[in-house]
């Protein structure tokens, strides 16, 4: 007796597909069979020959629930991920109060997030310039031993609880992370250049939205990547460039790979499909992000990077902000509005529509960049990232022919997107995590039925016992509230959060279904460049 039969699933086989049946037991794939006559299961789902991918992974999210609950929480964030066909997210350590840079801080974050999550999640580890200066670098190995997948450093400022690194501090971080065998993810923008030209443009009175991209120029990313490559060469650390925005960046990573350097990169859907001249003029601060949007030439060179292997996979840098207090406050300009926007809902459909359906990427490459490569790079493979016996029964089911238009009515809590108005062909229609349907576009789902008491317990209060368990952290960071949250609109209007959650359709599991996934092993992607 199986738990589930996924019937008539069209699964990838290289660049071709086969229609077969997938057998699931105890949340794992236990069989793949062309014949299921006489096979019994508690549930059978007929996929009707729709494309069935190994569960897609977004390896770069900032859900920011802990400290910034007005922006997003893990319930709205993971519900948006499930709606977009993502079965596993990997969250960043930086945008929480406190940031997750020790095992205790990491455990606190997991204890707060898990009761809200509807998809599985792994965690990045944290290391900053402050850790170098204060002699806290022992936290790197301890986080690695606990199961984080990688470490993040910022060359430019992020939030006060996550200080940027100077060049020598970054070198020290490279050395410490190299000893763990894990990747070190770098936000690659040269701080001095960005800071100088932003101030110069501000002093000159430039307030047009496009000035944001022009001040934080392509050269700032280029020289930052070159420095990261030099540090990787010196320390043999596994350099990973996160949210790479430029075509020259892809070329630099490709050349580094050919020289045998441990270098990888990711890009995001917005760097593949949006250019700053059009998007910033149309959407203003709602298209502001760091690194900023670039040119159409960069769009095409990054698509080429995905094809030739200099860009290893896709992630979103999902980081939405509150419109009323952080994006469109009356006194804000393009310089003071917060940089970031949502992405987990739209990553998979954009890659399906603009990548696979338009012939920019093959089917095998699509599977690599949406699922397999991130799973391998972050040590989650083969638990995640493949359709194989013994792997978690995670599937993203796609209607390749469904035509639709992205609107600003998002599952993520922010209510805006720079992709508004984009017409797409191809859409996730079911998301399955560990053999359970987490999202079904045709169903009402569980979230509209949550009671006031359930929402209070799950979203507005910390889990029972957490404050006592982490009393030292709560003493240092009262209520875990950021200054931004104290000034936010939703702080005084929590009913808007409840209303938003109840408006989310199609989520078929209760909050808390998602599980924390520790790194399984250390795995390194091959340094393959094809032309």
Automatic annotation (TrEMBL):
Q: Name one Pfam family in it.
A: Amidohydro_1
Residue stretches making up the Amidohydrolase-related domain: 53-438
Q: What is its EC number?
A: 3.5.2.5
- SUPFAM superfamilies reported for this sequence: Composite domain of metallo-dependent hydrolases, Metallo-dependent hydrolases
The molecular function terms in GO held by this entry are: allantoinase activity
Tell me which PANTHER family the record gives. ALLANTOINASE
Q: What is this protein called?
A: Allantoinase AllB
Sorted UniProt keywords: Hydrolase
Domain of life the protein comes from = Bacteria
Which biological process terms from the Gene Ontology are attached to this UniProt entry?
Answer: purine nucleobase catabolic process
What does UniProt give as GO cellular component? cytoplasm
Task: Report the sequence similarity comment from the record.
Answer: Belongs to the metallo-dependent hydrolases superfamily. Hydantoinase/dihydropyrimidinase family.
């Amino acid at each position: 007796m199986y738990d589930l039969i996924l019937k008539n699933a069209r699964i990838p086989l290289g660049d071709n597909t086969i229609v077969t049946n997938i057998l699931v037991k105890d949340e794992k794939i236990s069989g793949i069979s062309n014949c299921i006559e006489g096979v019994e299961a508690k549930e059978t789902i007929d996929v009707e020959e729709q494309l069935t991918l190994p569960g897609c992974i977004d390896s770069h999210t900032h859900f920011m629930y802990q400290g910034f609950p007005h922006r997003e929480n893990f319930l709205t964030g993971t519900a948006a991920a499930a709606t977009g066909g993502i079965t596993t997210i990997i969250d960043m350590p930086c945008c929480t109060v406190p940031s997750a840079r020790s095992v205790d801080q990491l455990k606190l974050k997991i204890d707060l997030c898990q009761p809200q999550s509807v998809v599985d999640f792994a965690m990045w580890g944290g290391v900053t310039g402050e850790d170098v200066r204060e002699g806290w670098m022992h936290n790197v190995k301890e986080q690695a031993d606990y199961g984080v997948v990688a470490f993040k450093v910022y060359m430019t400022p992020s939030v006060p609880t996550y200080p940027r690194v100077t060049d020598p501090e970054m070198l020290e971080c490279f050395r410490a992370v190299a000893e763990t065998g894990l990747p070190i993810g770098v936000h690659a923008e040269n701080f001095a250049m960005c800071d100088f030209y932003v101030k110069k443009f501000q002093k000159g009175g430039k307030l047009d939205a496009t000035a944001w991209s022009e001040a934080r120029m392509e050269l700032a990313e280029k020289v930052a990547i070159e420095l990261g490559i030099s540090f990787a060469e010196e320390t043999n650390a596994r350099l990973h460039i996160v949210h790479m925005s430029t075509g020259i960046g892809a070329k630099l990573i490709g050349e580094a790979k050919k020289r045998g350097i441990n270098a990888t990169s990711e890009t995001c859907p917005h760097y593949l499909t949006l250019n700053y001249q059009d998007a910033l003029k149309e959407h203003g601060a709602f298209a502001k992000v760091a690194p900023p949007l670039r040119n159409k030439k960069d769009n095409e060179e990054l698509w080429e990077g995905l094809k030739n292997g200099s860009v290893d996979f896709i992630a979103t840098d999902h980081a939405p902000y509150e419109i009323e207090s952080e994006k469109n406050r009356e006194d804000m300009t393009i310089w003071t509005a917060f940089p970031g926007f949502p992405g987990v809902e739209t990553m998979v459909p954009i890659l399906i529509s603009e990548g696979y359906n338009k012939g920019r990427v093959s089917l095998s490459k699509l599977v690599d960049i949406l699922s397999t490569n991130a799973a391998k790079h972050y040590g989650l493979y083969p638990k995640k990232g493949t359709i194989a016996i013994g792997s978690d029964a995670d599937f993203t089911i796609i209607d390749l022919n469904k035509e639709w238009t992205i609107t600003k009515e998002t599952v993520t809590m922010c209510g805006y997107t720079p992709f508004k108005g984009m017409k797409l062909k191809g859409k996730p229609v079911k998301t399955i995590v560990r053999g359970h349907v987490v999202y079904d576009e045709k169903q009402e789902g569980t979230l509209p039925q949550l009671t006031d008491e359930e929402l209070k317990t799950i979203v507005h209060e910390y889990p029972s016992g957490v404050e006592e368990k982490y009393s030292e952290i709560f003493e240092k960071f009262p209520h875990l509230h950021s200054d931004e949250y104290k000034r936010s609109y939703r702080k005084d209007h929590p009913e808007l959060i409840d209303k938003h959650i109840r408006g989310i359709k199609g989520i078929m599991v209760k909050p808390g279904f998602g599980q924390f996934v520790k790194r399984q092993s250390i795995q390194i992607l091959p340094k393959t460049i094809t032309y």
